[in-house]
Protein backbone atom coordinates (compact mmCIF):
# COMPACT_ATOMS: atom_id res chain seq x y z
CA UNK A 1 0.00 0.00 0.00
CA UNK A 2 1.24 3.51 -0.79
CA UNK A 3 0.28 6.31 1.57
CA UNK A 4 -0.32 9.85 0.42
CA UNK A 5 0.29 12.01 3.46
CA UNK A 6 -1.21 15.44 4.07
CA UNK A 7 0.41 15.87 7.49
CA UNK A 8 1.48 13.88 10.52
CA UNK A 9 -1.74 11.89 10.83
CA UNK A 10 -0.05 8.47 10.74
CA UNK A 11 1.97 6.88 13.51
CA UNK A 12 4.24 3.88 13.02
CA UNK A 13 4.15 1.17 15.67
CA UNK A 14 7.69 1.57 16.92
CA UNK A 15 8.94 2.91 20.24
CA UNK A 16 6.12 4.24 22.45
CA UNK A 17 4.13 1.82 24.54
CA UNK A 18 0.35 1.94 24.27
CA UNK A 19 -1.16 3.24 27.48
CA UNK A 20 -4.13 0.93 26.94
CA UNK A 21 -5.12 -1.79 24.46
CA UNK A 22 -8.35 -3.53 23.50
CA UNK A 23 -9.50 -5.76 20.68
CA UNK A 24 -11.62 -2.96 19.22
CA UNK A 25 -11.36 0.80 19.66
CA UNK A 26 -14.52 2.75 18.83
CA UNK A 27 -14.30 6.50 18.20
CA UNK A 28 -17.54 8.31 19.04
CA UNK A 29 -20.51 7.79 21.36
CA UNK A 30 -23.54 8.51 19.20
CA UNK A 31 -25.88 5.78 18.02
CA UNK A 32 -23.27 4.50 15.55
CA UNK A 33 -20.49 4.33 18.11
CA UNK A 34 -22.59 2.57 20.70
CA UNK A 35 -24.17 0.12 18.24
CA UNK A 36 -20.71 -0.89 17.02
CA UNK A 37 -19.26 -1.10 20.54
CA UNK A 38 -22.10 -3.20 21.95
CA UNK A 39 -22.12 -5.54 18.94
CA UNK A 40 -18.37 -6.11 19.08
CA UNK A 41 -18.49 -6.70 22.84
CA UNK A 42 -21.41 -9.11 22.48
CA UNK A 43 -19.24 -11.15 20.12
CA UNK A 44 -16.37 -11.51 22.54
CA UNK A 45 -14.24 -8.45 21.79
CA UNK A 46 -12.86 -6.18 24.46
CA UNK A 47 -13.78 -2.60 23.59
CA UNK A 48 -12.49 0.86 24.46
CA UNK A 49 -14.81 3.64 23.37
CA UNK A 50 -13.41 7.16 22.98
CA UNK A 51 -15.41 10.38 23.04
CA UNK A 52 -13.98 13.73 21.97
CA UNK A 53 -16.40 15.75 24.10
CA UNK A 54 -16.98 15.84 27.81
CA UNK A 55 -20.32 14.05 27.54
CA UNK A 56 -21.60 11.09 25.57
CA UNK A 57 -24.22 11.06 22.85
CA UNK A 58 -22.95 13.12 19.92
CA UNK A 59 -25.61 14.38 17.53
CA UNK A 60 -27.93 11.51 18.47
CA UNK A 61 -28.42 12.98 21.93
CA UNK A 62 -29.72 16.24 20.39
CA UNK A 63 -32.09 14.52 17.97
CA UNK A 64 -35.65 13.22 18.01
CA UNK A 65 -33.78 9.99 17.15
CA UNK A 66 -36.32 8.34 14.89
CA UNK A 67 -34.77 5.49 12.94
CA UNK A 68 -36.07 4.28 9.59
CA UNK A 69 -35.98 0.50 9.30
CA UNK A 70 -37.43 -1.23 6.23
CA UNK A 71 -39.15 -4.56 6.84
CA UNK A 72 -38.65 -4.35 10.59
CA UNK A 73 -40.04 -6.94 12.98
CA UNK A 74 -42.52 -4.51 14.54
CA UNK A 75 -44.23 -3.75 11.26
CA UNK A 76 -44.30 -7.42 10.32
CA UNK A 77 -45.96 -8.24 13.65
CA UNK A 78 -48.70 -5.76 12.71
CA UNK A 79 -49.20 -7.36 9.31
CA UNK A 80 -47.41 -4.66 7.31
CA UNK A 81 -45.44 -5.83 4.28
CA UNK A 82 -42.39 -4.14 2.80
CA UNK A 83 -41.40 -5.97 -0.40
CA UNK A 84 -37.67 -5.90 -1.07
CA UNK A 85 -37.91 -5.11 -4.79
CA UNK A 86 -40.19 -2.14 -4.23
CA UNK A 87 -38.23 -0.80 -1.27
CA UNK A 88 -35.02 -0.84 -3.30
CA UNK A 89 -36.76 0.95 -6.17
CA UNK A 90 -38.06 3.56 -3.75
CA UNK A 91 -34.61 4.24 -2.30
CA UNK A 92 -32.93 4.18 -5.72
CA UNK A 93 -35.34 6.70 -7.22
CA UNK A 94 -34.75 9.09 -4.32
CA UNK A 95 -30.97 8.60 -4.32
CA UNK A 96 -30.40 9.09 -8.06
CA UNK A 97 -33.60 10.40 -9.66
CA UNK A 98 -31.73 11.53 -12.77
CA UNK A 99 -30.45 7.98 -13.38
CA UNK A 100 -33.31 5.91 -11.97
CA UNK A 101 -34.31 3.03 -14.22
CA UNK A 102 -36.47 0.24 -12.77
CA UNK A 103 -35.33 -2.10 -15.54
CA UNK A 104 -31.64 -1.60 -14.85
CA UNK A 105 -30.02 -4.33 -12.68
CA UNK A 106 -28.75 -1.61 -10.32
CA UNK A 107 -31.86 0.60 -10.76
CA UNK A 108 -29.64 3.42 -11.98
CA UNK A 109 -27.44 3.43 -8.87
CA UNK A 110 -23.70 2.86 -9.06
CA UNK A 111 -22.66 -0.67 -8.25
CA UNK A 112 -21.38 0.48 -4.85
CA UNK A 113 -24.56 2.39 -4.02
CA UNK A 114 -26.69 -0.59 -5.00
CA UNK A 115 -24.61 -3.02 -2.96
CA UNK A 116 -24.79 -0.82 0.13
CA UNK A 117 -28.49 -0.10 -0.30
CA UNK A 118 -29.37 -3.78 -0.61
CA UNK A 119 -27.24 -4.56 2.43
CA UNK A 120 -29.15 -1.93 4.37
CA UNK A 121 -32.52 -3.41 3.43
CA UNK A 122 -31.34 -6.97 4.11
CA UNK A 123 -29.80 -6.27 7.53
CA UNK A 124 -31.63 -3.27 9.02
CA UNK A 125 -34.46 -5.28 10.54
CA UNK A 126 -32.07 -7.92 11.86
CA UNK A 127 -29.80 -5.29 13.39
CA UNK A 128 -32.61 -3.50 15.22
CA UNK A 129 -34.27 -6.69 16.42
CA UNK A 130 -30.95 -8.08 17.68
CA UNK A 131 -29.91 -4.85 19.43
CA UNK A 132 -33.36 -4.75 21.02
CA UNK A 133 -32.99 -8.32 22.29
CA UNK A 134 -29.67 -7.30 23.84
CA UNK A 135 -31.29 -4.35 25.61
CA UNK A 136 -29.31 -1.81 23.57
CA UNK A 137 -32.43 -0.42 21.88
CA UNK A 138 -35.94 0.03 23.23
CA UNK A 139 -37.98 0.58 20.06
CA UNK A 140 -41.43 2.18 19.94
CA UNK A 141 -43.17 1.72 16.57
CA UNK A 142 -44.77 4.89 15.25
CA UNK A 143 -47.30 3.79 12.67
CA UNK A 144 -49.01 7.19 12.40
CA UNK A 145 -46.03 8.97 10.81
CA UNK A 146 -45.77 8.65 7.03
CA UNK A 147 -42.54 8.47 5.10
CA UNK A 148 -41.50 11.78 3.58
CA UNK A 149 -42.39 10.41 0.17
CA UNK A 150 -45.35 8.26 1.09
CA UNK A 151 -47.09 9.33 -2.11
CA UNK A 152 -44.49 7.81 -4.43
CA UNK A 153 -45.61 4.90 -6.60
CA UNK A 154 -42.62 2.81 -5.55
CA UNK A 155 -43.35 3.24 -1.84
CA UNK A 156 -45.39 0.16 -0.94
CA UNK A 157 -44.85 0.63 2.82
CA UNK A 158 -45.50 4.33 3.48
CA UNK A 159 -46.21 3.67 7.17
CA UNK A 160 -44.44 1.40 9.65
CA UNK A 161 -40.76 1.85 8.92
CA UNK A 162 -40.28 4.68 11.43
CA UNK A 163 -39.33 3.76 15.00
CA UNK A 164 -38.70 6.05 17.98
CA UNK A 165 -36.79 5.45 21.20
CA UNK A 166 -38.72 4.56 24.32
CA UNK A 167 -38.76 7.17 27.05
CA UNK A 168 -36.14 5.97 29.50
CA UNK A 169 -38.00 4.55 32.50
CA UNK A 170 -41.33 5.58 30.97
CA UNK A 171 -44.54 3.67 30.52
CA UNK A 172 -44.73 1.07 27.73
CA UNK A 173 -45.10 2.74 24.35
CA UNK A 174 -44.13 6.19 25.66
CA UNK A 175 -41.95 7.93 23.10
CA UNK A 176 -38.63 9.45 24.08
CA UNK A 177 -35.84 11.07 22.08
CA UNK A 178 -32.11 10.91 21.48
CA UNK A 179 -31.25 11.43 25.13
CA UNK A 180 -33.25 8.32 26.00
CA UNK A 181 -31.68 6.32 23.17
CA UNK A 182 -28.20 7.16 24.41
CA UNK A 183 -29.03 6.28 28.00
CA UNK A 184 -30.19 2.83 26.90
CA UNK A 185 -27.15 2.32 24.67
CA UNK A 186 -24.78 3.42 27.46
CA UNK A 187 -26.40 1.04 29.93
CA UNK A 188 -25.98 -1.85 27.50
CA UNK A 189 -22.37 -0.93 26.76
CA UNK A 190 -21.53 -0.75 30.45
CA UNK A 191 -23.11 -4.14 31.07
CA UNK A 192 -20.92 -5.60 28.31
CA UNK A 193 -17.75 -4.20 29.84
CA UNK A 194 -17.10 -1.47 27.28
CA UNK A 195 -14.54 0.96 28.69
CA UNK A 196 -15.59 4.56 28.05
CA UNK A 197 -13.13 7.45 27.98
CA UNK A 198 -14.27 11.06 27.62
CA UNK A 199 -12.21 14.02 26.45
CA UNK A 200 -10.25 11.91 23.95
CA UNK A 201 -10.01 13.58 20.52
CA UNK A 202 -8.48 11.13 18.06
CA UNK A 203 -5.95 12.89 15.85
CA UNK A 204 -3.77 10.10 14.44
CA UNK A 205 -3.92 6.46 13.42
CA UNK A 206 -1.28 3.90 14.35
CA UNK A 207 -0.13 1.37 11.75
CA UNK A 208 2.13 -1.66 12.09
CA UNK A 209 4.77 -3.00 9.73
CA UNK A 210 2.07 -4.54 7.50
CA UNK A 211 0.33 -1.15 7.18
CA UNK A 212 -2.64 -2.37 9.23
CA UNK A 213 -4.29 0.09 11.58
CA UNK A 214 -3.53 -1.09 15.11
CA UNK A 215 -4.44 1.88 17.25
CA UNK A 216 -4.97 5.60 17.57
CA UNK A 217 -3.42 8.64 19.19
CA UNK A 218 -5.91 10.75 21.14
CA UNK A 219 -5.38 14.28 22.38
CA UNK A 220 -6.49 14.87 25.97
CA UNK A 221 -6.11 17.68 28.50
CA UNK A 222 -3.10 15.80 29.84
CA UNK A 223 -1.40 15.32 26.47
CA UNK A 224 -1.49 12.66 23.77
CA UNK A 225 -2.42 9.10 24.63
CA UNK A 226 -1.67 6.01 22.54
CA UNK A 227 -4.42 3.35 22.57
CA UNK A 228 -3.93 0.05 20.79
CA UNK A 229 -6.47 -2.01 18.86
CA UNK A 230 -5.66 -5.69 18.33
CA UNK A 231 -8.44 -6.14 15.77
CA UNK A 232 -9.92 -2.86 14.56
CA UNK A 233 -10.54 0.83 14.99
CA UNK A 234 -14.13 1.84 14.20
CA UNK A 235 -14.70 5.55 13.60
CA UNK A 236 -18.20 6.84 14.34
CA UNK A 237 -17.09 10.41 14.91
CA UNK A 238 -19.69 12.34 12.88
CA UNK A 239 -19.44 14.60 9.86
CA UNK A 240 -17.79 17.97 9.32
CA UNK A 241 -20.67 20.36 9.94
CA UNK A 242 -18.60 22.51 12.29
CA UNK A 243 -15.49 22.64 10.10
CA UNK A 244 -16.32 25.86 8.27
CA UNK A 245 -13.48 25.68 5.75
CA UNK A 246 -14.24 22.10 4.75
CA UNK A 247 -17.97 22.76 4.71
CA UNK A 248 -17.52 25.77 2.45
CA UNK A 249 -15.20 23.90 0.09
CA UNK A 250 -17.36 20.78 -0.16
CA UNK A 251 -21.07 21.57 0.00
CA UNK A 252 -22.96 22.80 -3.08
CA UNK A 253 -24.30 26.02 -1.56
CA UNK A 254 -23.99 28.41 1.38
CA UNK A 255 -24.48 26.88 4.82
CA UNK A 256 -24.55 29.10 7.91
CA UNK A 257 -24.21 26.41 10.57
CA UNK A 258 -25.73 23.13 11.67
CA UNK A 259 -27.31 21.29 14.55
CA UNK A 260 -24.79 18.46 14.69
CA UNK A 261 -22.78 18.03 17.86
CA UNK A 262 -20.18 20.79 18.13
CA UNK A 263 -17.46 18.11 18.09
CA UNK A 264 -18.32 17.15 14.50
CA UNK A 265 -15.40 18.71 12.65
CA UNK A 266 -14.42 15.90 10.26
CA UNK A 267 -11.67 14.35 12.39
CA UNK A 268 -11.54 11.11 10.38
CA UNK A 269 -10.95 12.81 7.03
CA UNK A 270 -7.23 13.72 7.34
CA UNK A 271 -6.49 10.31 8.82
CA UNK A 272 -8.41 8.50 6.08
CA UNK A 273 -6.77 10.57 3.34
CA UNK A 274 -3.34 9.87 4.76
CA UNK A 275 -4.12 6.16 4.55
CA UNK A 276 -5.20 6.42 0.91
CA UNK A 277 -8.95 6.17 1.45
CA UNK A 278 -11.38 6.87 -1.37
CA UNK A 279 -13.64 9.78 -0.42
CA UNK A 280 -17.23 9.85 -1.72
CA UNK A 281 -20.33 12.06 -1.46
CA UNK A 282 -18.32 14.96 -0.05
CA UNK A 283 -20.92 17.37 -1.41
CA UNK A 284 -23.70 15.58 0.47
CA UNK A 285 -25.41 16.67 3.66
CA UNK A 286 -28.53 16.14 5.71
CA UNK A 287 -30.06 19.57 5.18
CA UNK A 288 -32.54 21.66 7.15
CA UNK A 289 -33.38 25.32 7.69
CA UNK A 290 -32.27 26.99 10.89
CA UNK A 291 -33.26 30.27 12.50
CA UNK A 292 -30.52 32.68 11.42
CA UNK A 293 -30.06 34.09 14.91
CA UNK A 294 -29.34 30.59 16.19
CA UNK A 295 -27.03 29.75 13.30
CA UNK A 296 -24.91 32.83 13.91
CA UNK A 297 -24.83 32.29 17.68
CA UNK A 298 -23.64 28.72 16.94
CA UNK A 299 -24.50 27.45 20.40
CA UNK A 300 -23.93 23.75 21.18
CA UNK A 301 -27.64 23.27 21.95
CA UNK A 302 -28.95 24.89 18.76
CA UNK A 303 -31.52 23.00 16.70
CA UNK A 304 -32.66 23.06 13.11
CA UNK A 305 -36.27 23.72 12.16
CA UNK A 306 -37.47 20.30 11.06
CA UNK A 307 -41.18 20.94 11.42
CA UNK A 308 -42.85 24.28 10.67
CA UNK A 309 -46.47 24.33 11.84
CA UNK A 310 -48.72 27.26 11.01
CA UNK A 311 -51.41 27.97 8.44
CA UNK A 312 -51.64 31.78 8.11
CA UNK A 313 -47.91 31.81 7.49
CA UNK A 314 -45.59 32.21 4.49
CA UNK A 315 -41.89 32.38 3.70
CA UNK A 316 -40.69 35.09 1.33
CA UNK A 317 -37.37 36.14 -0.16
CA UNK A 318 -35.70 39.54 -0.22
CA UNK A 319 -38.22 40.70 -2.83
CA UNK A 320 -41.24 39.64 -0.77
CA UNK A 321 -42.04 36.68 -3.02
CA UNK A 322 -42.94 33.11 -2.03
CA UNK A 323 -40.40 30.74 -3.55
CA UNK A 324 -41.06 27.35 -1.94
CA UNK A 325 -43.60 25.02 -0.39
CA UNK A 326 -43.07 25.91 3.25
CA UNK A 327 -44.28 22.47 4.40
CA UNK A 328 -42.03 20.38 2.15
CA UNK A 329 -39.51 18.03 3.83
CA UNK A 330 -36.63 20.07 5.20
CA UNK A 331 -34.06 18.41 2.93
CA UNK A 332 -36.03 19.57 -0.10
CA UNK A 333 -36.46 23.13 1.14
CA UNK A 334 -32.79 24.02 1.56
CA UNK A 335 -31.72 24.06 -2.13
CA UNK A 336 -34.20 26.90 -2.61
CA UNK A 337 -31.92 29.08 -0.48
CA UNK A 338 -29.18 28.50 -3.06
CA UNK A 339 -30.99 29.86 -6.12
CA UNK A 340 -28.55 32.17 -7.93
CA UNK A 341 -29.59 35.29 -9.83
CA UNK A 342 -26.81 35.71 -12.38
CA UNK A 343 -27.74 39.16 -13.69
CA UNK A 344 -27.74 40.60 -10.19
CA UNK A 345 -24.96 38.31 -8.92
CA UNK A 346 -26.87 37.50 -5.76
CA UNK A 347 -28.67 34.84 -3.78
CA UNK A 348 -32.17 36.37 -3.54
CA UNK A 349 -33.30 33.51 -1.28
CA UNK A 350 -30.17 33.28 0.86
CA UNK A 351 -32.31 34.12 3.87
CA UNK A 352 -36.06 33.56 3.88
CA UNK A 353 -38.38 35.66 5.99
CA UNK A 354 -41.00 33.58 7.78
CA UNK A 355 -44.09 35.70 8.45
CA UNK A 356 -47.19 34.82 10.48
CA UNK A 357 -50.11 36.54 12.13
CA UNK A 358 -51.60 36.55 15.61
CA UNK A 359 -54.02 33.70 14.89
CA UNK A 360 -51.25 31.43 13.66
CA UNK A 361 -49.32 32.30 16.81
CA UNK A 362 -52.37 31.35 18.87
CA UNK A 363 -52.91 27.95 17.28
CA UNK A 364 -49.42 26.84 16.28
CA UNK A 365 -46.86 28.16 18.77
CA UNK A 366 -44.58 25.54 20.29
CA UNK A 367 -40.96 24.46 20.44
CA UNK A 368 -41.13 20.89 19.17
CA UNK A 369 -38.78 19.93 16.32
CA UNK A 370 -37.34 23.44 16.05
CA UNK A 371 -40.63 25.31 15.56
CA UNK A 372 -39.62 29.01 15.35
CA UNK A 373 -43.05 30.13 16.67
CA UNK A 374 -42.03 30.05 20.31
CA UNK A 375 -44.96 30.65 22.67
CA UNK A 376 -45.08 33.53 25.12
CA UNK A 377 -42.82 32.87 28.07
CA UNK A 378 -40.17 31.19 25.93
CA UNK A 379 -37.10 32.63 24.24
CA UNK A 380 -38.49 34.82 21.46
CA UNK A 381 -35.32 36.81 20.87
CA UNK A 382 -35.21 35.63 17.24
CA UNK A 383 -38.70 36.99 16.53
CA UNK A 384 -39.50 40.55 15.41
CA UNK A 385 -42.97 42.05 15.12
CA UNK A 386 -44.88 45.00 13.68
CA UNK A 387 -48.41 46.34 13.65
CA UNK A 388 -48.27 46.76 9.88
CA UNK A 389 -46.35 45.01 7.12
CA UNK A 390 -44.22 48.15 6.77
CA UNK A 391 -43.42 48.10 10.49
CA UNK A 392 -42.54 44.43 10.22
CA UNK A 393 -40.25 45.04 7.23
CA UNK A 394 -38.48 47.82 9.13
CA UNK A 395 -37.84 45.47 12.05
CA UNK A 396 -36.58 42.75 9.71
CA UNK A 397 -34.19 45.17 7.99
CA UNK A 398 -32.83 46.28 11.34
CA UNK A 399 -32.23 42.67 12.38
CA UNK A 400 -30.52 41.89 9.08
CA UNK A 401 -28.31 44.96 9.47
CA UNK A 402 -27.02 43.50 12.72
CA UNK A 403 -25.93 40.35 10.86
CA UNK A 404 -24.39 42.08 7.83
CA UNK A 405 -20.83 40.99 8.64
CA UNK A 406 -21.95 37.35 8.40
CA UNK A 407 -24.42 37.59 5.53
CA UNK A 408 -22.45 39.71 3.08
CA UNK A 409 -24.75 42.64 3.70
CA UNK A 410 -27.83 40.74 2.50
CA UNK A 411 -31.04 42.69 3.16
CA UNK A 412 -34.55 43.29 1.88
CA UNK A 413 -35.09 44.98 -1.46
CA UNK A 414 -36.92 48.31 -1.62
CA UNK A 415 -39.83 46.54 -3.34
CA UNK A 416 -40.29 44.13 -0.42
CA UNK A 417 -43.45 45.57 1.16
CA UNK A 418 -45.28 46.14 -2.13
CA UNK A 419 -44.46 42.64 -3.33
CA UNK A 420 -45.27 41.12 0.07
CA UNK A 421 -48.72 42.70 -0.04
CA UNK A 422 -49.33 41.11 -3.44
CA UNK A 423 -47.90 37.81 -2.24
CA UNK A 424 -50.27 37.68 0.72
CA UNK A 425 -53.25 38.58 -1.45
CA UNK A 426 -52.38 35.74 -3.84
CA UNK A 427 -51.72 33.30 -1.00
CA UNK A 428 -55.03 34.16 0.62
CA UNK A 429 -56.88 33.24 -2.58
CA UNK A 430 -55.31 29.79 -2.49
CA UNK A 431 -55.99 29.50 1.25
CA UNK A 432 -59.67 30.24 0.71
CA UNK A 433 -59.94 27.39 -1.79
CA UNK A 434 -57.56 25.06 0.08
CA UNK A 435 -55.47 24.50 -3.05
CA UNK A 436 -52.00 26.04 -3.36
CA UNK A 437 -51.69 26.41 -7.12
CA UNK A 438 -48.19 27.86 -6.78
CA UNK A 439 -46.39 25.29 -4.60
CA UNK A 440 -48.96 22.55 -3.77
CA UNK A 441 -48.68 23.05 -0.03
CA UNK A 442 -50.49 20.46 2.04
CA UNK A 443 -50.82 17.83 -0.68
CA UNK A 444 -48.33 15.27 0.67
CA UNK A 445 -49.13 13.19 3.77
CA UNK A 446 -45.95 14.25 5.58
CA UNK A 447 -46.91 17.92 5.23
CA UNK A 448 -50.12 17.31 7.12
CA UNK A 449 -48.28 15.31 9.78
CA UNK A 450 -45.68 18.02 10.34
CA UNK A 451 -48.37 20.69 10.56
CA UNK A 452 -49.45 19.03 13.82
CA UNK A 453 -53.15 19.65 13.30
CA UNK A 454 -55.28 22.43 11.86
CA UNK A 455 -57.27 25.18 13.52
CA UNK A 456 -60.97 24.71 14.26
CA UNK A 457 -63.14 25.22 11.21
CA UNK A 458 -60.43 24.51 8.65
CA UNK A 459 -61.80 21.60 6.64
CA UNK A 460 -60.15 22.40 3.30
CA UNK A 461 -56.40 22.32 3.79
CA UNK A 462 -55.15 22.40 7.36
CA UNK A 463 -51.77 23.82 6.31
CA UNK A 464 -53.34 26.99 4.84
CA UNK A 465 -55.49 29.84 6.18
CA UNK A 466 -55.78 33.43 4.97
CA UNK A 467 -53.29 35.80 6.57
CA UNK A 468 -55.00 38.56 8.50
CA UNK A 469 -55.42 42.00 6.95
CA UNK A 470 -54.39 43.63 10.21
CA UNK A 471 -51.54 43.19 12.66
CA UNK A 472 -49.78 42.36 14.71
CA UNK A 473 -47.49 40.41 12.39
CA UNK A 474 -44.44 38.37 13.38
CA UNK A 475 -41.31 37.29 11.52
CA UNK A 476 -38.12 35.36 11.93
CA UNK A 477 -35.23 34.72 9.57
CA UNK A 478 -34.46 31.25 8.24
CA UNK A 479 -31.12 30.22 6.76
CA UNK A 480 -29.68 27.06 5.17
CA UNK A 481 -28.05 24.65 7.64
CA UNK A 482 -27.24 20.98 8.10
CA UNK A 483 -28.23 18.28 10.50
CA UNK A 484 -24.78 16.98 9.57
CA UNK A 485 -22.72 16.28 6.49
CA UNK A 486 -22.58 12.81 4.96
CA UNK A 487 -19.40 12.64 2.95
CA UNK A 488 -16.29 10.69 3.83
CA UNK A 489 -14.38 7.51 3.06
CA UNK A 490 -16.07 4.83 1.00
CA UNK A 491 -16.71 1.63 2.94
CA UNK A 492 -17.87 -1.86 2.12
CA UNK A 493 -20.91 -3.53 3.67
CA UNK A 494 -18.81 -4.55 6.69
CA UNK A 495 -17.81 -0.96 7.37
CA UNK A 496 -14.20 -1.40 6.25
CA UNK A 497 -12.71 1.76 4.77
CA UNK A 498 -11.64 1.25 1.15
CA UNK A 499 -8.69 2.61 -0.75
CA UNK A 500 -9.06 4.27 -4.14
CA UNK A 501 -8.34 0.87 -5.69
CA UNK A 502 -11.22 -0.66 -3.75
CA UNK A 503 -9.18 -2.66 -1.25
CA UNK A 504 -9.97 -2.55 2.50
CA UNK A 505 -7.52 -0.68 4.70
CA UNK A 506 -6.82 -3.40 7.29
CA UNK A 507 -8.08 -2.52 10.74
CA UNK A 508 -9.91 0.69 9.75
CA UNK A 509 -13.71 1.00 9.80
CA UNK A 510 -16.11 3.93 9.49
CA UNK A 511 -19.85 4.18 10.17
CA UNK A 512 -22.34 7.00 10.32
CA UNK A 513 -21.83 10.52 9.06
CA UNK A 514 -18.03 10.28 9.09
CA UNK A 515 -18.35 7.74 6.26
CA UNK A 516 -19.46 8.42 2.71
CA UNK A 517 -23.23 7.93 2.44
CA UNK A 518 -24.70 5.75 -0.29
CA UNK A 519 -27.95 7.76 -0.36
CA UNK A 520 -26.45 10.59 -2.43
CA UNK A 521 -28.16 13.89 -1.72
CA UNK A 522 -31.45 12.35 -0.65
CA UNK A 523 -33.21 12.01 2.69
CA UNK A 524 -35.35 8.89 2.34
CA UNK A 525 -37.59 9.49 5.36
CA UNK A 526 -37.63 10.56 8.98
CA UNK A 527 -34.93 8.44 10.60
CA UNK A 528 -33.07 7.82 7.34
CA UNK A 529 -29.98 9.05 9.16
CA UNK A 530 -30.07 6.75 12.19
CA UNK A 531 -31.57 3.70 10.46
CA UNK A 532 -28.56 3.16 8.18
CA UNK A 533 -26.15 4.33 10.89
CA UNK A 534 -27.34 1.72 13.39
CA UNK A 535 -27.45 -0.99 10.73
CA UNK A 536 -23.95 -0.38 9.39
CA UNK A 537 -22.53 0.00 12.89
CA UNK A 538 -23.98 -3.38 13.80
CA UNK A 539 -22.38 -4.96 10.72
CA UNK A 540 -19.05 -3.27 11.45
CA UNK A 541 -19.09 -4.50 15.03
CA UNK A 542 -19.77 -8.05 13.85
CA UNK A 543 -16.96 -8.00 11.32
CA UNK A 544 -14.42 -6.28 13.57
CA UNK A 545 -14.99 -8.73 16.42
CA UNK A 546 -14.35 -11.65 14.05
CA UNK A 547 -11.03 -10.27 12.79
CA UNK A 548 -7.78 -11.99 13.83
CA UNK A 549 -5.73 -10.13 16.40
CA UNK A 550 -2.85 -8.05 15.10
CA UNK A 551 0.27 -6.96 16.90
CA UNK A 552 0.05 -3.83 19.02
CA UNK A 553 3.65 -3.37 19.97
CA UNK A 554 5.43 -0.13 20.82
CA UNK A 555 4.51 2.95 18.82
CA UNK A 556 6.17 6.28 18.14
CA UNK A 557 4.80 9.33 16.37
CA UNK A 558 6.41 10.35 13.08
CA UNK A 559 5.99 13.47 10.99
CA UNK A 560 6.02 11.51 7.76
CA UNK A 561 5.71 7.93 6.74
CA UNK A 562 7.94 6.23 4.19
CA UNK A 563 6.26 4.71 1.18
CA UNK A 564 5.23 1.20 2.10
CA UNK A 565 4.59 -1.85 -0.01
Helix content: 25-40%
Please count the beta strands (DSSP E, at least 2 residues each).
21
What gross morphology would you assign? globular
Structural class: alpha/beta
Count every helix, treating DSSP H or I runs of 4 or more residues as helices: 15
Distance between the termini: 5 Å
Largest sheet data: 10 strands, mixed
Low-confidence stretches: 1-7, 553-565
Q: Over the alpha carbons, how many angstroms does the gyration radius reach?
A: 24 Å
Residue-averaged pLDDT? 94
DSSP strand (E) fraction?
15-25%
Describe it for me?
- The chain is α/β, with parallel strands linked by helices and 565 residues long.
- A hairpin with a 2-residue loop joins β9 and β10.
- The N terminus and C terminus are likely disordered.
- 28% of the residues lie in helices and 20% in strands.
Would you kindly provide a brief summary of this structure?
By secondary structure, the chain is of the alpha/beta class. It contains 15 helices and 21 strands.
Which properties best describe this structure?
565 residues; ten-stranded mixed sheet; six-stranded mixed sheet; alpha/beta; 15 helices; single chain; 28% helix; disordered C terminus
Amino acid sequence: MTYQLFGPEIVRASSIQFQATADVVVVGTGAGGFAAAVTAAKHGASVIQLEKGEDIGGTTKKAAAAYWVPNNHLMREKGYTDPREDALKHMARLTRPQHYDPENPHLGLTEWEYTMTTAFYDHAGIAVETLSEWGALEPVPWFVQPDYYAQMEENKAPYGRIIYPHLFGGAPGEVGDGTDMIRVFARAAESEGVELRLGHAVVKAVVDETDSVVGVIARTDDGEVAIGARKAVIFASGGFTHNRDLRTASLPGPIFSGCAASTNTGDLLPVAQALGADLVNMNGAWLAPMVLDRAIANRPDQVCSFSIPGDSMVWVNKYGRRVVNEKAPYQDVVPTFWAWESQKAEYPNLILVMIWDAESKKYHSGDKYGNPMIPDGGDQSHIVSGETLQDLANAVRERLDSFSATTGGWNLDESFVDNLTETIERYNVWAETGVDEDFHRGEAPIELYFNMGGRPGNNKNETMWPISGSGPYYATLLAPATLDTKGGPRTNVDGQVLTRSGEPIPGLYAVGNCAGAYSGGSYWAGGATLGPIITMAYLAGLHAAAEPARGTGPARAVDSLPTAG
